[in-house]
Automatic annotation (TrEMBL):
One of its GO terms (molecular function) is long-chain-alcohol O-fatty-acyltransferase activity. The keyword Endoplasmic reticulum applies. It comes from Ovis aries. One of its GO terms (cellular component) is endoplasmic reticulum membrane. It is a multi-pass membrane protein. Pfam families: DAGAT. Keywords: Acyltransferase, Endoplasmic reticulum, Lipid biosynthesis, Lipid metabolism, Membrane, Transferase, Transmembrane, Transmembrane helix. GO terms for biological process: lipid metabolic process. This is Acyltransferase. It is found in: Endoplasmic reticulum membrane. Belongs to the diacylglycerol acyltransferase family.
Amino acid sequence: MPCFKQPKHFQSLLLLHWPLSYLGIFWILQPLAIYLLFTSWWPLPALYFAWFLLDWKTPEQGGRRSAWVRNWCAWTHIRDYFPISILKTKDLSPEHNYLMGVHPHGLLTFGAFCNFCTEATGFSKIFPGITPHLATLSWFFKIPFIRDYLMAKGVCSVSQPAIEYLLSHDTGNLVGIVVGGVGEALQSVPNTTRLILQKRKGFVRMALQHGAHLVPTYTFGETEVYDQVLFHKDSFMYKFQSYFRQILGFYFCIFYGRGFRQGSTGLLPYPLPIVTVVGEPLPLPKIEKPSQEMVDKYHALYMKALTKLFDQHKTQYGCPETQKLLFL
């Protein structure tokens, strides 16, 4: 278990402002809204559900972000707990659109959430004129209240129509895709740098179709904040995890971190630094129907750029000189 110092903030404050706690609140709103349908307050949920149906396509048409939500002070407490920061290596011109690879997934993607879904680390000041969007599972946007919370933070659906809309309307859009997906969560173990990328080429094809620049990013420390229990592929638990993913779209991971008392075990993450390094954009030509050879070419260039980014910063952020990225 990694060593850590006692955080400055009370753990209860962290739990109060934890993003999953907010999601929990919005989950509670759904049965409450249904209950209100059978009371004298029924017009309120009825109006919301009517609007929900009329607003169905908004998540695939740019969403509805809120500067107020992105600037909640809650996010600064999360930032300071680890702490979380972002490092710019090159400017991003507002005259282009960008497709950003987010690596690694980690267990809860703290770095990408804090850096791209909030203003806690000052994204808008670091990258003026750029509007960040982080793509996540599409079915989240079919759930009342949850969809509105996610859209307010600039989160978008990972569906093809949603991403294509952002890449083809206006400029200055930065769409982040966690390329390794939920499968990479099972690779989230401290002191490892395994990425599921070797056969993930759809994002490159989409970037070529829209002439979007590819931006590699790597979040150092993302896989260090939790320990995870791994299971053999032949075990019952691994099969259960796979079945769970087939049903809900993500793995049921068993992980642990620190507890409320120093030296204890619990579900709080270890307060270790998380740094997202945003690399130099890779310009791509606009090709409506790119060949497989063209996709393979730019996919290889992207992996090379990501490897270079990792190697240039690994020793600065706690990785040994001998550490290498492993593409699965």
